[in-house]
Design a protein that fits this description.
single chain, mainly alpha, two-stranded antiparallel ribbon, two-stranded antiparallel sheet, 5 helices, 4 strands, globular
Length: 143
């Protein structure tokens, strides 16, 4: 399960819709990002933050997603998200999936989604999951 529970999704979306950075016409966090990434930096609580430009009815459904202004967070802490993204990038670069990597992947996936996920050894299926997570974590910066 990659999606937030229904009540959590509704809570997140309500927070977004009442946020001063929410663009009602596009349902996005700041300016909608289409094609090339365009970062929008704003001042929030005396801190500079980058609005994500995501379509919030979609992003708010993802269990591991978080608000760039920290108004709501995902299941994983930022440190855990960075660790997970590093791990995914390493797995993708390896080009092969070893049993120990699959165990670690599903451990992260379970925590990220807040649910037990069915295990699969199907390489194309796992690679699809890896790519989906990486796409959804594009705003998580790994140094």
């Amino acid at each position: 399960m990659l999606f937030a529970k229904s009540n959590e999704y509704k809570r997140r979306l309500e927070i977004c819709r009442t946020c001063k950075f929410f663009e009602a016409s596009t349902q996005s966090c700041g300016r909608l990002i289409v094609g090339e990434e365009v970062e929008t930096e704003v001042l929030f609580r005396k801190k500079s933050i980058k609005l994500c430009g995501c379509v919030m009815p979609i992003k708010a459904k993802l269990a591991f997603a978080q608000c760039p202004a920290s108004k709501w967070s995902g299941v994983l802490s930022l440190d855990e998200q960075i660790e997970f993204k590093r791990f995914l990038l390493d797995m993708k670069a390896q080009g092969r999936l070893e049993d120990k990597d699959l165990m670690k992947f599903y451990s992260f996936k379970d925590k990220a989604t807040g649910a037990f996920n069915e295990r699969s050894t199907c390489s194309p299926c796992v690679r699809k999951d890896i790519n989906m997570f990486l796409e959804s974590m594009k705003d998580v910066i790994v140094e």
